[in-house]
Amino acid sequence: MVGLGKEHATNVGIREHGEFSVCIPSVDQVVVTDWCGIVSAKKGVDKAAPFTIFRGSLQHAPMIAQCPLCIECRVHKTVELDGPEIFIADVVGTWTEERFLHPDGKPDFETMRPFVLSMPDGRYYAIGDHIADAWSAGRGFKAS
């Protein structure tokens, strides 16, 4: 699921083709990622120019080769809210390089070094260290 402001040019293509991609950049790409958020395709800026674009199995879900993780999605449902438009989608494919995987084939986020944008403070945060294992850390917890 992604939520995007209705004013974005990206929404037009998603509505028209029912496909999109989510490309997760690394902390090394924060400057170019931020630039993509500053400039507008509606004003003729080619936001794909700094990147190598590739396609997986979906024709209208371009992905960025420089990103450690890319996810192809096919829209299942669109929900319109007052501000954003929510696209609920099925994941069709995921793309990464072997160097971003653990030996068991699971994603290695410490190697990928992804970051997130926090709103409304408008700040980027690197995803940090592994702090615990899910469905394990709380086994010894006793509620009072």
Question: How does this structure look, described?
Answer:
The chain has helices at 9-17, 30-38, 109-112, and strands spanning 2-5, 19-24, 53-54, 63-64, 69-80, 84-95, 115-118, 123-126. The chain is an alpha+beta fold and 144 residues long. The chain has one domain: Pnp Oxidase, Chain A, CATH 2.30.110. The radius of gyration is 17 Å and the shape is globular.
Reconstruct the topology from this structure.
Elements: E1 2-5, H1 9-17, E2 19-24, H2 30-38, E3 53-54, E4 63-64, E5 69-80, E6 84-95, H3 109-112, E7 115-118, E8 123-126
Antiparallel strand pairs: 1-6, 2-5, 3-4, 5-6, 7-8
Task: Provide keyphrases for this structure.
globular, alpha+beta, 144 residues, single chain, four-stranded antiparallel beta sheet, Pnp Oxidase, Chain A
Structure described in brief:
The protein has 144 residues and is α+β, with helices and mostly antiparallel strands.
The stretches of 5 or more residues where confidence is low (pLDDT under 50) are none
Supply the CATH superfamily name: Electron Transport, Fmn-binding Protein, Chain A
Oligomer: single chain
CATH architecture verdict: Roll
Strand order of the largest sheet: 1-6-5-2
**Could you spell the SSE succession in H and E letters?**
EHEHEEEEHEE
What is the CATH T-level topology?
Pnp Oxidase, Chain A
Total discrete domains: 1
Measured by DSSP, the beta-strand proportion falls in 25-35%
Helix percentage: 10-25%
Mean pLDDT score:
95
- Termini Cα gap: 36 Å
Shape designation: globular
Query: Helix count, per DSSP?
Result: 3
- Sheet with most strands: 4 strands, antiparallel
Question: Structural class given helices, strands, pairing?
Answer: alpha+beta
CATH class: Mainly Beta
Find the count of extended strands (DSSP E, 2+ residues): 8
User: Nearest-angstrom radius of gyration?
Assistant: 17 Å
